[in-house]
Amino acid sequence: MKKPALIFCFLTVLTILLIPFSAQGAQLKTVLLLHSYHAGYKWTDDITSAVQNELFGKKIDLRIEHLDTKRYFTPQYLGNQRDYLVKKYGDTEFDVIMVSDNHALNFALDFRPELFPESPIVFCGVNSFKPEMLKGQANITGINEFAGVRKTLDLMMSIHPDTKRIIVINDESVTGGILKKAFKDETKDRYPHVKRVYTDNFSTQNLIDLLRSLAPDDLV
After folding, report:
1. Residue 48: how many CA atoms within 13 Å on its side-chain side?
2. What distance in Å separates the CA atoms of residue 3 and residue 43, rounded to the nearest whole number?
3. What are the pLDDT tens digits along the chain (220 aa)?
4. What's the CA gap between 169 and 155, in Å, rounded?
5. 16, 42, 79 from 207: Cα distances, Å
6. Is 210 helix (H, G, I), strand (E, B) or coil?
């Protein structure tokens, strides 16, 4: 699903959940928007802007937190994030928890008993969603983000049939790992003569050097 459509669907679900709030009168409702990534990352900032625009003028107390998992994602770090949020919001009862991308959803599910056991959860931007991811959970809904890897690769090869190498730029985040697996799974029997290069273990400088050295028969 493309980003504008995904955000629109996400906000539609959110609006449906918030309709009962406005019907209850002037009571202020508290909503937490939990991001997988950091402020300044365009994808994250776009979701924040869309949510703020949708909730503007409503009697909503919107709190925003960033897990920053493009930079930090060890179990110890995530445990520290849980402890921080427990101390910060231990006495707060959220009417809705919104989460963006896989890290935030996994975090919300793993630590739901400590953080927000009674709050409904709405997710967006989750890659390779499967119903079993929510096994044992209730009061959760959201939007799956599906990357059409095979069709994208077929289009690339139809335009550039002489391609010898494809550079797949990805990172070591949960989402990056899921997309890497999806790329491998969906294209393993296609174009065996084309070499794949994955960059999740590249440094920034190594990635820049690689991109500067691209040949006419390389695709990214």
Report:
1. 16
2. 8
3. 455 555 655 555 565 555 555 555 568 999 999 999 999 999 999 999 999 998 888 899 999 999 999 999 899 999 999 999 999 999 999 999 999 999 999 999 999 999 999 999 999 988 878 889 999 999 999 988 777 888 999 999 999 999 999 999 988 888 788 889 888 988 888 999 999 999 999 999 999 999 999 999 999 9
4. 18
5. 43, 20, 31
6. helix
* CA dist., res. 40 & res. 55, Å (int): 21
Placement of tokens 């920034």 in the chain: 204
Q: Are 164 and 194 in contact (CB under 8 A)?
A: yes
- The most distant pair of C-alpha atoms in the chain lies apart, rounded to whole Å, by 64
Mutual angle of helices 42-55 and 3-23, in 10-degree steps? 30
Per-residue CA distances from 76 to 33, 82, 174 (Å): 22, 10, 16
| Residue where the block lists tokens 């300044």 | 40
Instruction: Write down the pTM of the prediction.
Output: 0.71
- The tokens for 205 are 């400088």
DSSP string covering 116-154: -TT--EEEEEEET--GGGGTT--SEEEEEE---HHHHHH
Distance CA 109, CA 123 (A): 11
